[in-house]
Amino acid sequence: MVRIRVLVVDDHRIFAESLAAALTAEPDVDVSAAGSGPAALRCLERGAAESRPYDVLLVDADLGAGRPPQPAPLREAAAPVGAPVGAPVDGIALVAGVRAVQPGVRTVVLAERDDPRRAALALQAGAVGWVAKDCSLSRLLTVVRGVLREETHLPPALLTGVLRELTAARKHRSDSERLVESLTPREREVLRCMVAGLGRKAVAERLFLSPHTVRTHMQNVLGKLGVHSTLAAVALARRAGVGPADLAPPSNGVRAG
């Protein structure tokens, strides 16, 4: 019998242990538990290294809520690619982190309440299910087995709200893409440096430009994007799918114009 490897991630120990115990009673399910995002990532890494990868991740939507801030390295480990340094390791951030390091793992979010906006964010981050924490064991098992057949599971009551949120997100992305397309190639290059977190001086050194020229490019970028700060420009760029500049050392010292 092929066993389904499930990892429960919840910082409420009693809930995590109770759920793990209930799932373990199933003959085709093998369950482990982790109490935080970083701990979950370590479990996933260890499972992959031992050639016993996890199939399904069940993660608390409110993971880490009310807990003291964690050290930066731990926060960053489970934050989505491109998230600000210091972003909290909540359940949705963990979903994105898992998708980045082990895209084959199917992630289902366990939630105490229906929330169309957060459910849409979870799906955008890579989740394939949103399930109430108080659902029946049979319902949860149906979801676990279903997502392994490439199914996506949402409560019927959430469908309309989630579709509305996803449609709005697509519109924002389209608008953002249109604004980014209005930039010149050099301005887009400067924007990618901004997304990478480089300041004016670093951008000047990176692109072999004078700080004054970079300042002009940055002002043009903000103006064309219709924003008033670098942070807002970076957020818009991310929505448009603009990635950070490659910070590897340039291969030659030819000065760009």
From TrEMBL:
GO biological process: phosphorelay signal transduction system; regulation of DNA-templated transcription
Record keyword Phosphoprotein present: yes
SMART domains for the chain: HTH_LUXR, REC
GO molecular function: DNA binding
Domain spans labelled Response regulatory: 5-148
Sorted UniProt keywords: DNA-binding, Phosphoprotein, Transcription, Transcription regulation
Keyword Transcription regulation (UniProt): yes
Residues bearing the modification 4-aspartylphosphate: D60
One of the Pfam families matching this protein, by short name: GerE
Superkingdom per UniProt: Bacteria
Start and end residues of each HTH luxR-type domain: 176-241
Protein name stated in the entry: DNA-binding response regulator
